[in-house]
Amino acid sequence: MNILGISGGVSFGNQDGSAALLVDGKLIAAAEEERFVGIKFANGHLPRSAIAYVLREANLTMADVDTIVFAGSTYIEIADVLKRFLVAQFGHAPNIKLVDHHEAHAASSYYGWGAKESLVVTWDNSGDGKCTTIWSGSQGKMTLLHEYRRPNSLGLFYGAVTQYLGFMRDSDEYKVMGMAAYGQPIYDFDPILEVTSDGYHFHSDFIQGIVPGRPQPTKFIGLFDEFPLAVPRRLPTDPFTETHFNVAASAQAQLERACVTLVRHWLAKTGHRRVCFAGGVALNCLMNQKIREMDGVDEIFVPPVCSDAGLALGAAYLEAIAQGEQISPLGHAYWGPSFSSAEIKRVLDRAGARYRVSRNAAEDAASIIEQGKILGWFQGRLEYGPRALGCRSILANPRVADMKDIINMRVKFREEYRPLAPAILHERGSEFFDNYTDSPYMTQTFRTKGNLAEIAPAVVHADGTARLQSVHASTNPRFAELIHELQKKIDLPITLNTSLNAYNDPMACSPHQALRTFFTTGMDALILEEFVLEK
Length: 535
Ligand SMILES: [Fe+2]
Hints:
An 8-stranded mixed sheet has the order 13-22-21-14-15-20-16-19, with helices on both faces. The longest helix is centred in the middle third of the chain and has 29 residues, at about 240-270. The protein starts with a strand and ends with a strand. Helix content is about 30%, strand content about 20%. Helix 4 packs across helix 9 (about 310-320), helix 7 crosses helix 8 (about 285-290) and helix 11 (about 360-370) crosses helix 15 (about 475-490). It is built from 16 helices and 22 strands. It has 3 domains: about 1-105 and about 310-320, ATPase, nucleotide binding domain (Nucleotidyltransferase, domain 5); about 115-300, ATPase, nucleotide binding domain (Nucleotidyltransferase, domain 5); about 340-535, DHBP synthase (Alpha-Beta Complex), CATH 3.90.870.20. Bound molecules: fe (ii) ion. Fe (ii) ion binds near residues 105, 124, 127 and 279.
């Protein structure tokens, strides 16, 4: 069957629209709408362009789709909205089914991992009235064990701290996580996020919009009249003080305590030794590390798309299972569009760009990186998920001490607390990282070993951790070849890797977007397939 999963919506707060297409249980294509429309998170968008793309990739039209599955069972009149949208955009509306937000999150992780016997935990701000759900995944089936309903939410808690520290909630949470390494967890967050014997309870009374009669909060003004903490709120233009870093460290530590307690409780109850996650809170890679390192945990899985963009895939999986289909595990994140050499050449020629054709793009890339230059690397199919995993990446030499600041200043136009991350050949991972396990999607941090922090300072955080990507020749041969070539030159099987975008843009999808990033930032070189551009 041809099953099309979609996420997104038409209201404020419905972000991360995406589309994923399964044909007879096999994923053919998946992509986020933001990549096509060029607006990060594509708030309030249904995934028109992403749907058009996944159908094109499979050589199908809307008339060939058996069922469209939308992740969101309580959205007001959504089935009618979808019907009108599909008819207007595609001339036809197939059978539409609605599935629960958190069940779709859970399915994206459990079936994406290959339906291993495991505990399945989803945690986010909220979706369909739920904020955390716990499932037992066994013999290809998920059984719901427990759910936390809104406003009892870890995502709301972390979002509140994010906004309190002067950032935008539902997008800047990673900045708080980055700040945590520079602070001390000296503030007691237990009165706000109480850690209980089996998990947590979020005391949310202070948040506007939660208590009846108080206005809905915006993302720009106070989320609360008074945060129950003796620290004044930071406004976006205020300088950072030690206090702010301590608040971040305290909130991060409390989140970790709550999550570890919850997982420990449900592992004991079910006897599982594996855990998989999804939902926006699973983007917290420090928390994922803490859970991976727990006694009683053999293995964890965090898919490449934890956010609501992953709901499209999870929704499609649920329908495939309902239809009795066998599902293939995800395997990798390269499910978006690719562009042929002829297409790229056309774009370059039309733009009047000067370029040369490389005989060995990996070797050329390694030479450019060795020289301390910033390289855009555009190859193959776009990543599904927020992380560039070697197909739409910016790469640089991890040995150059100030490379993080150079990239943040010249390309990303941002001040950041997190360092940029390393991509390392999987087979060499345990030489450089403690308790190394395969981490292909950059969703977990690891403690570095030996003197890596000194020899590759650009990719190690202040707390001695790194959010690495394990690179496999089997799933991304060109990226693996590049790192092999780089190893010959810098004596490390590691490249610095960050996403191919500037400031607040979504990651580049097309050659046009890559060129725009190249010519409007301080990048030194760009390699699109075999075409090499240098400034
Ligand atoms: Fe969600």
